[in-house]
């Protein structure tokens, strides 16, 4: 809807009314169309101001409408009518002008923004392009390079940056609607033709081809296989080469291809799934909207290894005072240098002063006595963590929350050594913790609603996507990762090379193949976990290590690599070869190829040709299969949560929605049939055996994802 009012005698004030973000639903488009026509007709009205209710201009087209048949007045002619009008129209941009909201503002003759407003064309993040004339008007206003940047990345910019780029005419610290009314009064009677962006010629850079080539390289690197950024670049190219009306046709054609694509569906699914993940609930009825989180002003971080450093940086950047604890002077010193360096670099990038005063470094746990919450990030060893938690019980205030950054250990076992099990929760960050968006919040069986609410809210404050998960080995992410890695290792035994597996996964869209990721993380991490799980030990024959352990197929290849000192990037050699220890450029290593050949010979395995299809299906379907088991076990509340863990924590290509969404898109019956096929070929790999839930869903004719949980016999939520 849109409200119409007259102010200052001659200004029509049109207010978009569709909380929470005044999205351009059919009703809003109808309201604007009618209100603008009314203002243009009313002879008392000399100029028009467009604004949004509740201090928010507009969050763009209504994304929920994309899944339905479109109705109501379309955006393009509505915006054209505004631009072509004979009375000046000024957009008053408060808080946000995003997507269709900014396109609407670009159709206005003037734009005023509040200093705190954010502007952008994020359609690309939804698998679309700014198809309400945005790809044609913005380049005419800012020039090609800036428009390409904004449209292909979808990034939000500040009002100040928008002013520099010429996207807004004025920025105000005061009331943007009043400033817009003032501007509207001052421009009455001025010629409007120069203010109509569709009339402008697009300013062209000297090396047009070079600019586009460079952008295409960048977009392909950022999101391999994603269609929308490429289509966005093509549409902007049309603005460079064609008159406005033909450019608009090109924009529409490109949008038509994107609009019904699987990628757009996946990206829009991710938008809503990300927001749904924050809406947690526990079996006792506690929920995100009835549990009050505690305020967190001060926090302790124990352990200044890679994880602890990143966590400390996140906390400080969120305005939380931190006490960072190490056990030895040397580690404390190197941790202090690293954390300060990260804070200084970040501050320099943002042109602010580094908040170094907000963190103190100490060797004494006693310094944690007054903090609101502690995050333990010591070495992944249950005995060590237990001793830390017992000590924290003694040192911290009785109501301080105790959190562990364990990546897979039993949170309840840790809680049991404390004097406050309800105040213990897992906060599993992903490396590097100040960069990665995912936070798994592990709800132990005794974690209180207030504790869960505090951890989830703190995650959001740190800029993370917090997902509540149950307390099982590996939680959601690493429980699934183990099986994904196993498949990759088995494929090496059967005839594939690390680079072949990685290439197939990267073609699928993963930012990095699994073997490159393993090298980056360090192969010794998994080695240690396998030792702790009793899979490696003195009874393993060092010359001929068994390929069956604990009743199932086991691949000793990564252990053999570690025994050779090939630990990944840090040692300059892993599944790949690097220039030096710490090198980043992965090169195929002929030594690995010979190593694999010898291994196959030793075990009598005849290498077979493995297709890209097999690599992707085995790696990706095994993830979804375990996801179904996780749902049955009650360790995740919904398939959307599992997908968000993979998208934000494991480099899963967002335009494929997540492993569960992907399984639904491929077709559950196909996934079932392919898993059965691979399991028949590999009966000693139990995780290739289709899960009960998958079978049941296929039996029920593959219902939509929202109905999957209804097919779990007895839901026993472990959250
Ligand atoms: C052939 C058809 C041609 C059509 C032409 C199409 C051209 C234009 C396309 C577009 O405009 S696509 C949409 C572009 N806009 C965006 O991508 C913005 C999306 N929203 C956001 O980034 C954020 O929500 C926000 C606006 C920055 C606000 O963030 P905040 O953290 O304050 O709140 P949220 O929790 O994210 O959102 C609150 C609530 O609002 C819902 N919502 C937000 N934006 C939209 C939207 N554009 N459409 C529908 N719903 C939206 C969001 O889902 C939340 O709802 P609940 O989860 O609470 O129910």
Automatic annotation (TrEMBL):
<dbReference type="InterPro" id="IPR006176">
    <property type="entry name" value="3-OHacyl-CoA_DH_NAD-bd"/>
</dbReference>
<keyword id="KW-0456">Lyase</keyword>
<dbReference type="Pfam" id="PF00378">
    <property type="entry name" value="ECH_1"/>
</dbReference>
<dbReference type="Pfam" id="PF00725">
    <property type="entry name" value="3HCDH"/>
</dbReference>
<comment type="similarity">
    <text>In the N-terminal section; belongs to the enoyl-CoA hydratase/isomerase family.</text>
</comment>
<keyword id="KW-0276">Fatty acid metabolism</keyword>
<feature type="domain" description="3-hydroxyacyl-CoA dehydrogenase C-terminal">
    <location>
        <begin position="474"/>
        <end position="578"/>
    </location>
</feature>
<keyword id="KW-0413">Isomerase</keyword>
<dbReference type="GO" id="GO:0004165">
    <property type="term" value="F:delta(3)-delta(2)-enoyl-CoA isomerase activity"/>
</dbReference>
<dbReference type="InterPro" id="IPR001753">
    <property type="entry name" value="Enoyl-CoA_hydra/iso"/>
</dbReference>
<comment type="similarity">
    <text>In the C-terminal section; belongs to the 3-hydroxyacyl-CoA dehydrogenase family.</text>
</comment>
<dbReference type="InterPro" id="IPR006108">
    <property type="entry name" value="3HC_DH_C"/>
</dbReference>
<comment type="pathway">
    <text>Lipid metabolism; fatty acid beta-oxidation.</text>
</comment>
<feature type="domain" description="3-hydroxyacyl-CoA dehydrogenase NAD binding">
    <location>
        <begin position="299"/>
        <end position="471"/>
    </location>
</feature>
<keyword id="KW-0560">Oxidoreductase</keyword>
<keyword id="KW-0511">Multifunctional enzyme</keyword>
<protein>
    <recommendedName>
        <fullName>Peroxisomal bifunctional enzyme</fullName>
        <ecNumber>1.1.1.35</ecNumber>
        <ecNumber>4.2.1.17</ecNumber>
        <ecNumber>5.3.3.8</ecNumber>
    </recommendedName>
</protein>
<dbReference type="InterPro" id="IPR036291">
    <property type="entry name" value="NAD(P)-bd_dom_sf"/>
</dbReference>
<dbReference type="GO" id="GO:0006635">
    <property type="term" value="P:fatty acid beta-oxidation"/>
</dbReference>
<dbReference type="Pfam" id="PF02737">
    <property type="entry name" value="3HCDH_N"/>
</dbReference>
<dbReference type="GO" id="GO:0070403">
    <property type="term" value="F:NAD+ binding"/>
</dbReference>
<comment type="subunit">
    <text>Monomer.</text>
</comment>
<keyword id="KW-0443">Lipid metabolism</keyword>
<dbReference type="GO" id="GO:0005777">
    <property type="term" value="C:peroxisome"/>
</dbReference>
<dbReference type="GO" id="GO:0003857">
    <property type="term" value="F:(3S)-3-hydroxyacyl-CoA dehydrogenase (NAD+) activity"/>
</dbReference>
<keyword id="KW-0520">NAD</keyword>
<feature type="domain" description="3-hydroxyacyl-CoA dehydrogenase C-terminal">
    <location>
        <begin position="615"/>
        <end position="701"/>
    </location>
</feature>
<dbReference type="GO" id="GO:0004300">
    <property type="term" value="F:enoyl-CoA hydratase activity"/>
</dbReference>
<keyword id="KW-0576">Peroxisome</keyword>
<dbReference type="InterPro" id="IPR008927">
    <property type="entry name" value="6-PGluconate_DH-like_C_sf"/>
</dbReference>
<dbReference type="InterPro" id="IPR029045">
    <property type="entry name" value="ClpP/crotonase-like_dom_sf"/>
</dbReference>
């Amino acid at each position: 809807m849109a409200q119409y009012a007259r102010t200052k005698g001659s200004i029509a004030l049109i207010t978009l009314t569709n909380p929470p973000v005044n999205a351009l639903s059919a009703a809003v488009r109808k309201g604007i169309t009618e209100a603008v026509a009314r203002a243009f007709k009313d002879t008392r009205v000399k100029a028009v101001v467009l604004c949004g209710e509740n201090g928010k201009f507009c969050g763009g087209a209504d994304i929920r409408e994309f899944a339905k048949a479109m109705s109501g007045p379309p955006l393009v002619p509505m915006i054209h009518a505004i631009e072509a009008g004979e009375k000046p129209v000024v957009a008053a941009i408060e808080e946000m002008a995003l997507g269709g909201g900014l396109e609407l503002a670009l159709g206005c003759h003037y734009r005023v923004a509040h200093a705190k407003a954010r502007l952008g064309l994020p359609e690309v993040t939804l698998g679309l392009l700014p198809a309400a004339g945005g790809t044609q008007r913005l380049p005419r206003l800012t020039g090609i390079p800036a428009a390409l940047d904004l449209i292909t990345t979808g990034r939000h910019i500040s009002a100040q940056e928008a002013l520099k780029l010429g996207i807004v005419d004025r920025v105000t610290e005061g009331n943007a609607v009043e400033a817009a009314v003032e501007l509207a009064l001052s421009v009455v009677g001025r010629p409007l033709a120069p203010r109509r962006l569709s009339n402008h010629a697009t300013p062209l850079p000297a090396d047009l081809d070079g600019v586009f080539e460079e952008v295409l390289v960048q977009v392909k690197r950022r999101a391999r296989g994603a269609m929308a950024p490429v289509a966005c670049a093509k549409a902007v190219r049309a603005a460079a080469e064609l008159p406005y009306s033909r450019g608009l046709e090109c924009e529409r054609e490109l949008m038509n291809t994107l609009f019904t694509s699987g990628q757009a569906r996946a990206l829009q699914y991710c938008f809503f799934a990300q927001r749904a993940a924050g809406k947690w609930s526990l079996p006792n009825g506690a929920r995100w909207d009835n549990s009050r989180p505690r305020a967190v002003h001060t926090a302790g971080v124990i352990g200044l290894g890679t994880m602890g450093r990143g966590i400390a940086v996140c906390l400080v950047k969120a305005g939380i005072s931190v006490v960072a604890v190490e056990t030895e002077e040397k580690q404390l010193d190197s941790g202090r240098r690293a954390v300060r360096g990260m804070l200084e670099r970040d501050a320099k990038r943002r042109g602010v002063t580094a908040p170094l005063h907000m963190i103190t470094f100490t060797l004494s746990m006693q310094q944690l006595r007054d903090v609101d919450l502690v995050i333990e990030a010591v070495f992944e060893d249950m005995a060590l963590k237990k001793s830390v938690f017992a000590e924290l019980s003694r040192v911290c205030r009785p109501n301080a929350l105790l959190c562990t950054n364990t990546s897979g250990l039993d949170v309840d076992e840790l809680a049991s050594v404390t004097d406050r099990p309800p105040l213990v929760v897992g906060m599993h960050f992903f490396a590097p913790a100040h960069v990665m968006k995912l936070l798994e919040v592990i709800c132990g069986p005794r974690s209180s609603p207030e504790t869960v609410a505090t951890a989830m809210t703190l995650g959001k404050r740190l800029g993370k996507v917090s997902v509540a998960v149950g307390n099982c080995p590996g939680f959601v992410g690493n429980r699934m990762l183990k099986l994904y890695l196993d498949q990759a290792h088995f494929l090496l035994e059967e005839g594939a090379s690390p680079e072949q597996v990685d290439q197939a996964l990267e073609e699928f869209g993963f930012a990095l193949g699994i073997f490159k990721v393993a090298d980056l993380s360090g192969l010794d991490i998994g080695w240690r976990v396998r030792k702790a799980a009793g899979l490696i030990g003195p009874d393993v024959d060092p010359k001929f290590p068994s390929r069956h352990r604990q009743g199932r197929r086991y691949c000793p290849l990564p252990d053999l690599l570690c025994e050779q000192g090939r630990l990944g990037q840090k040692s300059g050699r892993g599944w790949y070869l690097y220039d030096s220890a710490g090198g980043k450029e992965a090169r195929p290593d002929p030594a690995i190829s010979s190593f694999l050949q010898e291994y196959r010979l030793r075990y009598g395995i005849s290498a077979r040709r493995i297709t890209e299809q097999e690599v992707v299906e085995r790696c990706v379907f095994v993830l979804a299969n375990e996801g179904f088991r996780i749902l049955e076990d009650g360790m995740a509340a919904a398939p959307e949560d599992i997908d968000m863990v993979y998208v934000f924590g494991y480099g899963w290509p967002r335009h494929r929605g997540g492993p569960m969404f992907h399984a639904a898109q491929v077709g559950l019956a196909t996934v079932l049939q392919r898993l059965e096929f691979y399991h028949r070929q590999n009966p000693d790999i139990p995780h290739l055996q289709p899960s009960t839930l998958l079978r049941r869903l296929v039996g029920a004719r593959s219902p939509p994802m929202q109905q999957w949980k209804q097919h779990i016999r007895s839901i026993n939520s472990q959250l």
